[in-house]
Amino acid sequence: MDENEDAREPLLAREEAGAGGVADDEAGAGTGDGPQSATLGPVFRSYLVGQSAYGLRVSLWWVGLSPLMLALVGNENVLGAVRVAFNVALLVVSPFAGVLAGRMKLEKILTATTFGRGAIYVVLLPLLWLFFAAPFRVVDSPTTLFVLVVVLCFIDGIQVALANVVDVDMGGTDILGAQKGLTVTDAMRNKLNSVFHICFDTSFLVFTPSVALLAWYIGELAVDQGRSKEDEDALKSGVLVCTFAGVFLVTSLISLYCYIYGLGGAPDAEGDYQVAPGDETELNEGANSAPANAQETAEEDSGILKSLWEGAVMTWSTRPIRWRLLFLGLEVAVEDAMVAVIVTEYAFTSHYFGDGDATRTNLFTALIVAVGKVGAVVAGFFMHSCWAVPTKKKGFRPLFASVLLASASVWLLVVAYGLERSAPNDIHGKTAWISRVLVFLSVTLFFLLSTAPKIGFETLLQGMVTSVEKGEKIFGFVGPFISIVDSIVVMGISLAFSMMKGNCSDGDFECQSSHFLSALSIIAAFYLAHGIFEALLGPRLMLPDDQDMLNKMGLNQADN
């Protein structure tokens, strides 16, 4: 994926039977720890802190984007439009993101995309609100505002596509290690993945609902001032816009500090794992080299594109990696869709929750996801504190069953909404409370049962890739591929809701309710099919049979 591919080959060539690509003699240099140590030096700590701050703003983004856009534009069609625009950008740009990652250092990509997203949510969206949506707006053109918001979401999708390939859960750890001349163990990968997911999921649990509650409270103050309904809605949209701007400003500054000052310098020989001195020169030459002229740039681009293609071919030709990557993409996508689309659509449509009000929808979406993320945090702590990378293939098999149970739990949402349709106006009755409990239970079970497999399989994939010769080429393909799968699934689920509900006229609750239930049932069937397929065929398709790969990963073929 990066410009140090050739420089990493000596590092890979020194790999012994220890998993994760760590040379026994050099892995613990400067730390006193063994080759499977999970100790993080200053570089990886800065990377983790920057990514954790990123997780805070992204948790707000996942939960609050749809209510924000709905409040800002005032048109329900914008929900599907912004998701489609965002995911089309991911779909188009992701294949080229690996090429850019091969041309730039990881910290430069993260710095540029953090600045880019900050400009959108800290500067441009507030300006759109002032000019087009505020009570004292200068321009009264809902169509223009709709188009501009969709364009900004498309640009935002470009930023995310570029950043995804170097995120901690998309292979960024190994890219950073290669560029800084640091080796990475499976224990370090598991620690980085687990800690990041704990921070990310905890932000859904505490941070996002707190921000949503504050936004709802401030928005309700506007209602109490005797203003017109139009001005009240405009002020509520302004509250959500300012909420996003404030969170993005603070967390972006934290991330930028970590990326610029924490990752910009040389690795600390006292804290980070170092490669042998003979390899540092080669790595630094690859990291600091720049094309001298246009011809050399073209040749370098051609080489990077060739490397990306080779990564795709290597992925496809290695069955366990091919299927593991495909299912990892699906696991990431169904979780993203649950937070970004399904829960938001449910809260907005349900009389028992948001009932079409933007700030209430934002609040209840945050609360539902927060309760659900309790399960994710529990699973994350289990993977971090209690789970060790298995030494036998059968150790991974309970994770496949967990995927199936997580997928089946989505059907509780269908049951819950079916109960609501039987008594839509009885919001304080027994049926309403049973329905609400089922919603919270469904989302909690989903995250509880899906988080552990995702973390475990991320570690499995990374271990398999590093056990393959020139496996760094596969890392260059992982991020773009997962982004593409994620964009297709999220976009498809967004379109399913918007197209089916779009067939109803405004105010026709019976039609909207019926079509929403149909869309929800179709989506739940998709989730269940994914779970069944992975549970039945996953162990056979994803766990390697090749003894050489098993040895390099530290897995036992016997008694598997």
From TrEMBL:
The keyword Transmembrane applies. Keywords: Membrane, Transmembrane, Transmembrane helix. Residues 7-17 have a biased composition (Basic and acidic residues). It comes from Hondaea fermentalgiana. Residues 286-295 have a biased composition (Polar residues). This is Uncharacterized protein. Residues 1-36, 276-295 are annotated as: Disordered. The chain crosses the membrane at residues 54-74, 80-102, 114-133, 145-166, 198-218, 238-260, 325-343, 363-387, 399-419, 431-453, 474-497, 517-537. It comes from the Eukaryota.
